[in-house]
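Handout, section B. The chain below has 173 residues.
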Amino acid sequence: MGYDSRMQRSDVEPCVYFMKDTELMVIILAYVDDYLVATNDKSWYDAFVAAFHSQYACKDLGVLDLVMGIGVRWGDALSPSDGKNVTLPYRALLGQLQWVARCSRPDIMAAVSVLSRFCTTYGPKHFVALKQVVRYQKGTMDYELVLLTASAPGGYSTGPSMPLPLSIYIDAD
């Protein structure tokens, strides 16, 4: 990322760039021709967008509400789009669960991986196991990851949480 020399590329995920300074936090996620910027500094974001737009043709879609088919509720949790069809065949449901596990629910990845082994040789017991994963998702869809502000050097607040002053913006078609 040439805009700010403090930006670092993640060693784990090559499409993630980040920067954390004393007052500034920035995370940029790139996916094909889309990008998502999360920062706690609106002026840094505005300068980044101006520099980025001078190099590439793109448009600012404003505050994030949907990314890769996953709905975003501010103040609540990220949740996958609600699929109402419960009569899906095994492979179709398995494919959807693989996508959900990869994008937003890593907690189901192990179960989905095991069930993937039976993609061509599944039976009723496998479909029952897939439905159990769906029931688990439904029962845990209100769980969320809460980021707390630091309350003391080296410690984090365990009392009433105060959200980080972080704004997320996205450019997605």
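Note. The mean pLDDT is 75. Compare this with the example in section A.
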